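Predict structure. Chain length: 300.
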Amino acid sequence: MTTLSNAAAAARGLYAVDAGPARLRIHHLAELKNKRQRITAVTCYDATFARLVDQAGIDVVLVGDSLGNVIQGQETTLPVTVDHIVYHCAAVSRGLQRAHLVADLPFLSYRNADVALQSAGRMLAEGNAHAVKLEGGAEVAPIVAALVAAGIPVMGHIGLTPQSVHAMGGHRVQGRGKEARKRLIDSAIALQEAGCYSLVLEAIPADLAAEVSAALDIPTIGIGAGAGCDGQILVLYDLLGLNPGFKPKFVKQFAQVGQAVVDALGAYRAEVQAGTFPAAEHTYCDPTPVAAPEPRRAAG
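Prediction complete.
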């Protein structure tokens, strides 16, 4: 087993209630719910950030199709492909030692059981993911069941489902009203019965999320769903303040890394223009003595 650095061990001591096993598996997440220990989760898209996330003791890392917005600059998640997720998931996996790694199944990659099996199989075989996540309620339960039967762990996702943004009329809170609440609760139960080992609840009223969490045996992970869930997830770039102008109601910026980056780049630019960087300590030299050239002799 790889030995943690002192910094990593200190980070886990500060941020994790219980560092737990060397690698978190799906049954460990169930144990966290049973112990009423909150699950921490973030999205991540590259190995460098993955190493930092792991050092902080985060439990779950999702390679989300939000990379379409965050990394690619897309307006929606719809252009993201299986190839994109596999590429980023493989990169993230190289930076993780402990966290449970989940790969999103992007738009139309699970439109039927056969396509879903091919897509999810690539996530595990090529992306090194431990599980996949898909969006949808009771209507996707048969696909969940097919994946679970094939040995692929599945995380569900209900409430606001970004892949259905056009059908929902935009990014709107879901589960409001008696019928909508019942439909969401029924979907949560159907997904659990189909074999989901956990469930993301996005942008739903806090009391509804707490009710769903209490009704299920599997852990719930909320985003914009209040503190009654068994865990929380945020996009890493959002919680770090890397895009200060993007701050929906459910996001808390735990740092202002974006401004720190701008400041660092400004300092770099100033030193390059002033000729103070690179200094002597940043410059290579050849330690081998150079022989003086032989004096030239006159001909004749």
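Summary: Residues 258-284 form one domain.
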